[in-house]
């Protein structure tokens, strides 16, 4: 039931159909969105295609995230930061009509993602040895200001969870999640500065491209950190939309290698998100409890664009079994889990 892709090629054929469906450890398919074909008038296609680069970074003190997203008829730029010592969370965003000024690369292996105006500048670029994140937002949080210059180290052999699945007859989801990227650089927030050390700080990328149903729902859970023996460990779990018959995006990431999981159940209480969540799979390889300590509620209501995200920050504990049968004990691994509903 889990189809692993191994052949490079195009994402879409000349008729806008997916050429291959399944998952892979790297991005293999060229994201030729220009061949998407779900409206009779091709000029309208761009207004339904969604593209985003979402970076998440865990430091000793902070969770920091920056996103450049092109939703077709509008862009969304947002940055948020959670202080683990005070539990203070602050987020600011900009809606950009018709995504003017947003630049996102064709594929995840190269290129630059850029948005800049007179108030804020975000610049993500792929380098030979990793990914560099530059953020400058002087007016962030009542002019406390926030800025970052962070490199996420990524070796060629580092594996990621890449998934290609259909959504209905004409729509699709092409997504790459890269966990457990060691982070170094600096983060300035108000009067504080933190120097990031790669032996304690980690980041991840959620690179998404595709065409969703107008009304969408999903769950996503992610974590990146360290085991007691020094190995890196990460989780990527998801469900809620699309045809998952060929593949899910569920996996354990151990020392940069993907250990694939099949179907994972998200057992939580909608409307009472601060209660513990439980994650189990259909092969008895996962039994995790996620205990939230902070909720991020993000709502957008712009008429045709309407979304509500409950992103919970907390700690994972339990066990996950690797592909070779090793039982991995996880204790208080900081990460997040979310419920997202959107009309977009």
Key features of this structure:
344 residues; mainly beta; AttH-like fold; nine-stranded antiparallel β-sheet; 1 helix
Structure write-up:
With 344 residues, this protein is mainly β. It is 1% helix and 58% strand. It is built from one helix and 24 strands. Strands 2, 4, 5, 6, 7, 8, 9, 10, 11, 12, 13, 14 and 15 form a 13-stranded antiparallel sheet that branches. Strands 19-18-17-16-24-23-22-21-20 form a nine-stranded antiparallel sheet, with no helix packed on it. Strands 1-3 form a two-stranded parallel ribbon. The radius of gyration is 19 Å and the shape is globular. It starts with 8 loop residues before the first strand and ends with a strand. The relative contact order is 0.14. The model has no long low-confidence stretch (mean pLDDT 95).
Quick overview of this protein structure:
The chain has 344 residues and is mainly beta. It has one helix at 140-143; strands at 9-10, 22-24, 29-30, 49-58, 62-70, 74-83, 89-97, 112-116, 121-127, 130-137, 146-153, 161-167, 171-189, 192-196, 202-211, 215-226, 232-239, 251-254, 257-260, 264-267, 277-281, 286-301, 306-321, 327-343.
